[in-house]
């Protein structure tokens, strides 16, 4: 098998393109959201864009965990992309 315990299952969605207006306030908001409202996912910066992502090792990964990760990322991206774009988008 090519799979190891270090392999990961990653789900992500782009949320906002950078640069953004008032980036210090945006970063503060995202850090606060990471603490309170993102469950097993978190906001990050990838390729000059804000993303929401969930990562888990594939060891003992169940179909329910895959479904949950996809649902969390999709829901949080949908709930936040328009709001963040309206306030911080260029």
Q: What this model shows, in words?
A:
The chain has about 90 residues and is an alpha+beta fold. The protein has a single domain (about 10-90), classed as Yope Regulator, Chain: A. Helices cover about 45% and strands about 30% of the residues. The protein is built from two helices and three strands; from the N terminus they run βαββα. It has helices spanning about 25-35, 65-90; strands at about 10-15, 40-45, 50-55. The protein has a three-stranded antiparallel β-sheet.
CATH class: Alpha Beta
Number of helices, counting only DSSP H or I runs of 4 residues or more: 2
Q: Could you give the order of strands across the largest sheet?
A: 1-3-2
Proportion of strand residues: 25-35%
Q: How far do the termini sit from each other?
A: 47 Å
Major pleated sheet: 3 strands, antiparallel
User: Could you name the CATH topology?
Assistant: Yope Regulator, Chain: A
What's the rounded overall pLDDT mean? 95
Q: Topology as H/E string?
A: EHEEH
Question: How many beta strands in the DSSP annotation?
Answer: 3
Secondary structure blueprint with pairings:
Layout: E1 8-17, H1 23-36, E2 41-46, E3 49-57, H2 63-88
Antiparallel strand pairs: 1-3, 2-3
Quick structural summary:
This protein has 90 residues and is an alpha+beta fold. It has helices at residues 23-36, 63-88, and strands spanning 8-17, 41-46, 49-57. The chain has a single domain (8-88), classed as Yope Regulator, Chain: A, CATH 3.30.1460.10.
């Amino acid at each position: 098998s090519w799979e190891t315990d270090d392999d990961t299952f990653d789900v992500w969605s782009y949320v906002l393109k950078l640069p953004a207006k008032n980036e210090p306030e945006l970063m503060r908001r995202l850090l606060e959201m990471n603490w309170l409202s993102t469950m097993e996912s978190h906001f990050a910066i990838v390729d000059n864009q804000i993303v929401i992502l969930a990562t888990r090792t594939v060891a003992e990964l169940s179909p329910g965990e895959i479904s949950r990760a996809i649902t969390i990322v999709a829901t949080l991206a949908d709930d936040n992309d328009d709001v963040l774009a309206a306030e911080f988008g260029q």
